[in-house]
């Protein structure tokens, strides 16, 4: 099960209704916040929301882990929660650490994925359309903007904010020019991807 949101804390009640009550252990990945030098209140809001649901957190940074060490931490979790921040940096570290490679198998084994903002962008088809929202220069070692493609579209998070209207229009133009499909997600929406289809909550 893949759950995508613009801000998980805002839709935590919807998330709790979807997730089984037995899913208690959360691998909480904060990596996307690294380029912001600790100024990441959105991560703290998501952390508090998950804890308020009675779940336990194992906080992980993909920039500090790789290979078997990472796998050991992830396999002990029921839920893999990826926080927001810079999506390009997150993709860079997902590739470097091996997270990109092991995540599909972990989900096939029954774990649930929650992507908040950049965490939602990560599992789409590409980050190419998102350069107006996140700075690609935060990921100097990223060789390709191809994302994990666990869903067959580009999640466009934080949709509907008036201050981003011009950026939305340009993003849709770019997506159309390269044949990418975009699915917009408002801050109050939860997208559930299951059985190859979208369900809105």
List the helices and strands and how they pair.
Layout: E1 2-5, H1 12-18, E2 25-29, H2 41-52, E3 56-60, H3 67-75, E4 79-82, H4 87-97, H5 99-108, E5 112-116, H6 118-122, E6 154-159, H7 165-178, E7 182-186, E8 190-194, E9 197-200
Secondary structure: number of strands: 9
- CATH names the topology as Rossmann fold
- Rounded to the nearest angstrom, the radius of gyration is 16 Å
How would you describe the oligomerization state of the chains in this entry? single chain
How many domain regions?
1
Describe the protein in words.
By secondary structure, the chain is α/β, with parallel strands linked by helices. It has a single domain (2-200), classed as Rossmann fold, CATH 3.40.50. The protein contains seven helices and nine strands, in the order βαβαβαβααβαβαβββ. The strands form two sheets. It has a seven-stranded mixed sheet. Strands 6-7 form a two-stranded parallel ribbon. The longest helix is centred in the C-terminal third of the chain and has 14 residues, at 165-178.
């Amino acid at each position: 099960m893949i759950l995508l949101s613009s801000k998980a804390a805002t839709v935590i009640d919807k998330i709790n209704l979807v997730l089984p009550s037995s899913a208690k252990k959360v691998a909480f990945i904060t990596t996307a916040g690294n380029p912001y030098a600790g100024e990441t209140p959105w991560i703290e809001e998501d952390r508090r929301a998950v804890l308020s649901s009675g779940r336990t957190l194992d906080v992980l940074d993909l920039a500090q882990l790789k290979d078997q060490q990472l796998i050991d931490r992830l396999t002990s979790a029921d839920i893999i929660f990826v926080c927001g921040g810079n999506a390009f940096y997150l993709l860079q570290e997902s590739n470097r650490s091996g997270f990109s490679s092991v995540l599909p198998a972990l989900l096939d084994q029954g774990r649930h994925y929650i992507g908040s903002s950049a965490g939602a962008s990560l599992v789409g088809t590409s980050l190419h359309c998102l350069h107006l929202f996140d700075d690609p220069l935060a990921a100097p070692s990223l060789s390709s903007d191809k994302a994990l493609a666990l869903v067959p579209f580009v999640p466009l998070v934080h949709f509907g904010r008036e201050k981003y209207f011009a950026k939305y229009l340009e993003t849709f133009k770019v997506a159309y020019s390269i044949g990418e499909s975009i699915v917009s997600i408002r801050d109050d929406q939860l997208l559930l991807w299951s059985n190859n289809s979208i369900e809105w909550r």
